[in-house]
Amino acid sequence: MRKLLVTGGAGFIGANFVRHLLHSDPQISVVTLDRLTYAGTQTSLHGLPPQRHHFVHGDICDAELVSKLLHDHALDTIVHFAAESHVDRSIAAPGEFVRTNVVGTYTLLEAARTAWLAPARRGESARFHHVSTDEVYGSLAPDAPPFSEATAYDPRSPYSASKAASDHLASAYHHTYGLPLTISNCSNNYGPYQFPEKLIPLLIVNALHGRELPIYGDGGQIRDWLYVEDHCRGIERVLRDGRPGQTYNIGGGNQWRNLDLCRRLCRMIDETFAADARLRERFPAAAAAQGGRTCDTIRFVADRPGHDRRYAIDAAKIRRELDFGPAADFDSGIRKTLEWYLDNDWGWRPLLSADYRRWLAQNYTARVK
Ligand code: NAD
Ligand code: DAU
Questions:
Q1: How far is the CA of 279 from the centre of ligand 2 (A)?
Q2: Residue 40 backbone dihedrals phi, psi, to 5 degrees
Q3: Is 157 in the pocket of ligand 2 (CB under 6 A)?
Q4: Is 134 known to be catalytic?
């Protein structure tokens, strides 16, 4: 693993991964390929060393471009993050999810097969790592054991169905053609650079602007939260020592009901504002800046159609085989995340585009009707 292609590296996890890897290993160079959809911004990649990082604005569905990059940069590793990743958007408009998540993954696999499995190249080490999600396993009953790598796939949203399809294609390329490939299925991530349409950054950004905090349904859904830096470390472990053909589940062992998580975050925002007059000046519309309680701005809204009730990951395999476990506990992770959003408006304000505002307004209005 010396020369990597990272797809979707201008998005949330991809950007954290590129930063993590360039920081942790001076031998590595990275080409980031990103289409810069509404969810991606080069701002997330600012300050990286230009001699070791090269950004390409392009589409993973562009077979010619992908093949040219593999060839011209002599890339030996692909870490594939690029995806349409938001469940609500997949319910509203599934077509783009099939295009990017299924056809895009196929395009990358085919380019890797052609570049790396040609007779002249056989024997050289290469690796394709496909980044996937725990949502492919479906929804857990309250007392069911967490998802393991042996859990049967049962995707229930257009997003998770498209990711499941991409996992099956990836697996098939290993079994049929011998492409050296690993897959990881991870639980919900949180941390810096996340687009503020996902629960945690949406709650933070809304709270800072004094907007209501929408909780879908009864707020009793459960997610297993992992700090993004830990996900990046987990992927690095799989890249370095994971066995080709294997899937590794990565999770936080950290299950929270949405409503409890939201209340925890609200309390943290109130305490932080109470201790810092400058925050009250910078975000005057926030309830916490006006002597109110952020919790009082929670609003229960219509549920997500087909909403999965509970996700939880059994991460025993990656712990046993690769000696990997998360380092951040939830309290410190969520505090670092809040601090990042408070200190780095430049990182998320540019994302609040007209498209974002339109989406937020439509999604919210549809739910409060
Ligand atoms: P994100 O939406 O923040 O970023 C996706 C990135 O992919 C963006 O930069 C976007 O511009 C880019 N992209 C989209 N379509 C593209 C295309 N056709 N060609 C090139 N680039 C394109 O997503 P994320 O939350 O960082 O998720 C990254 C990956 O991790 C996804 O595959 C997702 O399924 C998986 N995952 C996410 C989570 C999570 O909690 N966010 C958890 C488990 C797995
Ligand atoms: O589990 C991994 C998955 O986690 C990833 O594969 C996805 O890419 C990622 O988006 C995430 O999916 P979720 O649907 O779990 O994340 P989201 O942040 O959209 O929602 C988290 C929970 O919070 C979910 O139960 C829906 C709920 N929710 C979400 C939003 C945006 C609300 O109650 N209110 C909201 O406004």
A1: 28
A2: -115, 145
A3: no
A4: yes
DSSP string for 118-164 = SGGGTTS--EEEEEEEGGGG----TTSPPB-TTSPP---SHHHHHHH
CA of 309 to the centre of ligand 2 (A): 11
Q: What percent of the chain has pLDDT over 70?
A: 99
Whose CA is closest to 258, among 221, 207, 229?
Answer: 221
Active-site residue, from 34, 84, 137, 159: 159
pLDDT in tens, 16-69: 999 999 999 999 999 999 999 999 999 999 999 999 999 999 999 999 999 999
User: What average pLDDT does this structure show over 240-258?
Assistant: 97
Ligand having the closest approach to the CA of 232: 1
- Domain 3-195+225-253+308-328 adopts which CATH fold? Rossmann fold (3.40.50)
Per domain, the residue ranges of the chain are 3-195+225-253+308-328
Q: How far apart are CA 146 and CA 227, in angstroms?
A: 19
355 flagged as catalytic = no
Residue identifier of the C-alpha nearest atom 10 of ligand 2: 86
CB 215 near ligand 2, within 6 Å: yes
CA-based nearest residue to 329, from 216, 260, 230, 202:
230
pLDDT at 359 over 80: no
Tokens for 349, please give them. Answer: 């304000």
Cβ atoms 107, 130 nearer than 8 A: no
Whole-number Cα distances in Å, 5 to 24, 77, 200: 17, 6, 29
pLDDT higher at 356 or 147: 147
